[in-house]
Amino acid sequence: MPGRFPPFRSRALLACVPVLGLVTLASAGAASAARAPVNARATARTALEHLLADWHPTNLAPRSTSLTQVKSLNWSGYADGKTTARYGNVAGRWAQPAGKCGSAQSLAVFWVGIDGFPSATVEQDGTGIFCPGGGAAPVYFSWWEMFPANSAQVVGMTVKPGDHIAASVTRSSTSYALKLTDSTTSGNSLSTTQACALTTCKDTSAEWIAERPANSTGKLSPLTNFGTWTVTGAAVMAGPTSGTISSFPDNEITMASSSGKVLAQPGPLNSTGTSFKVTWKASK
User: What pLDDT, in 10s, does the model give residues 208-251?
Assistant: First the structure.
């Protein structure tokens, strides 16, 4: 949080301080102001990591890949369903959406991944928007996760609205290379290789998803108002076959509350199956 001016009476007293003292106080004030954003970011990171500790990112939708349009409590976007071959790569690009925060804590994450529709594991990476609550400004971050082997790993917290993001997950036998590049702002890119046995990670789906994770108690978080998330350059591979979202059994997923209220609505795929939009509708 930026440093605040002292109250009027304090400012008046400064007039009585010798010049050298003014210089010292000014230097201290500048140092304090410089530290403030860093301290606020560290506090937000701690809160975010606590929030994500109990996140279960699998899709909360009917366990079926035969449907082309489904509703989910936590996902919105597209998922390619089960094929006779294992999925080996998924990729996509987007410009980081801008978030609008209110008084309540909220969260939205954007990712590409393998599994989770309908399997119980997910190998994923992406970006997110965290609203700490109380009217605080949104915090933007990059992350990856091999669920359920670990919780979401926050990498960078200097992502900015409009940053150009490219994300991918590539499998080679039992190794998963998770890569995200923020080509606009340094410090947010990531590259890690993680292992998962073929008996555990099924590789039966590939996804491009906007999601509202669960909070630290396991309850689904309100969805941050992200406006519109636009995916481009969507690519996928199953076995030896490379293609786009529409090359394989694709499912359009609408996020809706338990009462049926639409929270995030995907638009149609473009003609080549490489691009679509998800539009925020409501927080909860």
Answer: 999 999 876 778 999 999 999 999 999 999 999 999 999 999 99
Closest CA to 147 of 116, 187, 183: 116
Q: Does residue 37 lie in a domain region? A: no
Is pLDDT larger for residue 216 or for residue 106?
106
Maximum Cα interatomic distance, the chain, rounded to a whole number of Å: 81
CA dihedral 152, 47, 92, 268 (to 10 degrees): 110
| Residue 130 belongs to domain spanning | 44-280
Q: Within 10 A of 31 (CB to CB), how many other CB atoms are there?
A: 11
Integer Cα distance of 203 and 194 in angstroms: 14
Give the Cβ contact number of residue 64 at 10 Å. Answer: 12
Is 32 inside a domain boundary? no
Number of domains in the chain: 1
Cβ proximity of 146 and 120 under 8 Å: no
Q: Is 39 part of any domain?
A: no
Q: Which residues pair with 129 in a beta bridge?
A: 108, 140
Alpha helix positions (H), the chain: 8-14, 19-52
